[in-house]
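Morning - FE2/S2 (inorganic) cluster inputs below, output right after.
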Amino acid sequence: MLAALIDGDYKRFEFDDIDVLLFREGGNLYAIEDLCTHDGAELCGGLYTNGEIECPRHGARFCVKTGQALSAPAYGQVSTFPVRVNDQGTVEIQLTVD
Ligand code: FES
């Protein structure tokens, strides 16, 4: 899976209760919930540049590393999830944080 994700790009993954976007930036991986905190739109499909994703509905931008909202009309942070690559090279996303 990691090889399929080129640097500067992202992919969407659907799990039981949550949809996640996985970003690859500068060799690092970041995962956020695919849910805009302004009005609940999917962030997937939004323009992704310089570590920021733009909501396709109203244009709010979010930092994919911290989840922080960077521009109106969103002010709330999107959920972020720890990501690692295990010894077998599989990407693991921790969807719950203790
Ligand atoms: S729903 Fe994302 S900016 Fe409005």
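Note: The mean pLDDT is 93.

O.
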